[in-house]
Amino acid sequence: MTPNYKRILLKISGEALQGEAGYGISDSVIEKITGEISEIHFLGIQVAVVIGGGNIFRGNSGTKSGIDRAASDYMGMLATVINALALQDFLERKDVHTRVQSALEIKQVAEPYIRRRCIRHLEKGRVVILAAGTGNPFFTTDTAATLRALEIGADVILKATKVDGVYDKDPLIHDDAVKFKDLSYMEVLKQELKVMDATAISLCMEGNIPIIVFNLFEEGNIKRIVMGEEIGSIVRASKH
Questions:
Q1: Overall domain count for the chain
Q2: 226, 217, 225, 218: which is closest to 20 by C-alpha?
Q3: CA 20 to 30 Å from 217, out of 28, 35, 158, 193?
Q4: Tens of pLDDT along 38-95?
């Protein structure tokens, strides 16, 4: 079978890496995630990853303790660099060539993000891990994921979460939560559904790039999605 996508942008939250510990990086979780990434990489799919930093530091939590918002957001960006380096290490143990590109310049550990260089790495079969968000405060890593997906010409954004799609309310709290299988960008914005922030959704709508929201912790989901199975919820221009 031929994969449905040639180039994907995988968005992983920092919280996904913490596992049961509730903080930091879980070896078993990152081992599983990188195993799934390597599996689709060896199918010949070009993979870019945008990683969050919430397992180490969240920008909005810093502001609650009185830290300046811009400074707090920069601290969150630095947390994503730590996660990116961890992902890189685990992927390279699996013989997957990777590059970390950072929107903040940290020459000793990462290349600066340069769009054409990123695309060239992907064409050469390297997984590119994109760290430090957009490099600007006041923007989320979801917005960074959308921006990078559009810049590199990704076919789809795979938004990895703890649940198996988009619901009208949190299914981990509400037993009567209703799952949406197929949504338009406008429905997400009008209903204020927690897929991505409004800026990210608006960018996706403008660039007409679909978002697939799926459960990261169900084994094999990433491969099933790229091979064409209908997993999770899809957000696109119009419902099919």
A1: 1
A2: 217
A3: 193
A4: 999 999 999 999 999 999 997 667 677 889 999 999 999 999 999 999 999 999 999 9
Give pLDDT tens digits for 143-161.
999 999 999 999 999 999 9
Is the pLDDT assigned to residue 166 strictly greater than 80? yes
Torsion of CA 58, 61, 65, 67, to 10 degrees: 50
Q: What CATH number has the domain bearing residue 70?
A: 3.40.1160.10
Residue 179 forms beta bridges with which residues? 167
Q: Please state the pTM of the whole predicted model.
A: 0.95
Contact 7, 154 (CB under 8 A): yes
Contact 212, 156 (CB under 8 A): yes
Residue 2 falls inside a structural domain: no
Asked if residue 222 belongs to a domain, the reply is yes
Question: What value does the mean pLDDT of the chain take?
Answer: 94
The edge-to-edge listing of strands for the beta sheet with 156-161 is 111-112, 98-102, 127-131, 46-51, 7-12, 156-161, 211-215, 233-236, 182-184
Q: Is residue 101 situated within a structural domain?
A: yes
DSSP letters along 26-70, please? Answer: -HHHHHHHHHHHHHHHTTT-EEEEEE--TTT--HHHHHHTT--HH
In a domain, 54, yes or no: yes
List the domain range (segments joined by +) for residue 87. Answer: 7-236
Q: What is the pLDDT of residue 194?
A: 86
Q: Which residue has the tokens 């600007």?
A: 136
The residue-averaged pLDDT of 2-13 equals 96
Q: Which of 134, 129, 24 is nearest to 77 (CA)?
A: 134
